[in-house]
Amino acid sequence: MSQAETILPAAGAAREPFFSWPPLPFALWLCGFYACWLAIVAGFDYWATVAAHWPIAAAMAAGSYFAGSTPMGGGTVGFPVLVLLFNEPASLGRSFGLAVQSIGMVSASIYIIAAGRRIDWSLLKPALVGSLIATPLGAAFIAPYAPDLGVKLLFATLWASFGVIHFAKLKMIVTPEGARRPEPALDRRIGFAIGLAGGVVASLTGVGIDMMIYAAMVMFYRADIKVAIPTSIILMAFTSVVGIASNVALSAFGPPQYALPPDVFHNWLAAAPVVAVGAPFGAVIVNRLPRKSTLLIVSALCIGQFVWTLVQEREAGWPLLAALGGLLLLNLFFLFLFRTGERRAAGERVESIKAR
């Protein structure tokens, strides 16, 4: 078996029909989840709570679709809805994002793996290790002390940069196809660094690590977007489980600053049954529809939430300059990744020609 074949399993090589029955492991997961959810809601009479939180369930219907079809976790919709629309604190948006993604992104991941989708394990495995280390540390030592405004601006700036670079480089992002050749030594270093940095960011905002590994893959490695998106989904799913588990443990055994607001659980009850099928639905559709249109819509939403944040917070002076400066620096970094990736790809083509 060649190195490239370790990324591209034979099961994912054939073109899928538009509709097919879900893989058995995924069907069993759904049955188990809905049985547990129903037992909680019916057993503790949470029907009124679920009904009262229908707005977040409605928002996550769209959010979970984008979570499964793009490198955006469901928290990318849940965070601004709760924080900007419902005026909840950033800590609630972060914790809800991790909690809801622990169902939606996990559900999408189970479907992706069971369906034999292409995954870049060479980069993903060290990223999982980095996330396992950094996410609990960020939850314990950084997130409780981060200012609310700082978290909002960090979230807004990260995803606005995603939108800007996609409008600027969309054609180049969607062009590469097929599996890349793993580079074990380089992949371990980059993957682990992504896990560390992304774990801290996710502990603050509930998302972000998925965008980081996606950016490295499509910009630096010039990887196929249909490999990059499933890889980013699995990393975000793992980080979400680690993150919400860390938050719950700290809330149960730590001092008062770690306490989880009750609305995290209430919103989760309403949204979880929606995202359990919404995110996998996005993972199904992304392999069957043109990629450009979905990414353009998502990019517009990312830029829109940045403007929305600045307008709602009515910030001027240093916070505004920091947000705009961060947006500029991130996009300059993305351009650097692109140019480095282009030089690497050109060098590989020259070596391939020489080898012939």
Automatic annotation (TrEMBL):
Keywords associated with the record: Cell membrane, Membrane, Transmembrane, Transmembrane helix
Membrane spanning stretches: 26-47, 59-86, 98-115, 127-146, 190-221, 233-253, 265-286, 293-311, 317-338
Major localization class: membrane
Gene Ontology, cellular component aspect: plasma membrane
Protein's membrane topology: Multi-pass membrane protein
Pfam families (alphabetical): TauE
InterPro entries: TM_pro_TauE-like
Compartments, record wording: Cell membrane; Membrane
Similarity comment text for this entry: Belongs to the 4-toluene sulfonate uptake permease (TSUP) (TC 2.A.102) family.
PANTHER family: MEMBRANE TRANSPORTER PROTEIN
Protein name per Swiss-Prot or TrEMBL: Probable membrane transporter protein
Species, as recorded: Amphiplicatus metriothermophilus
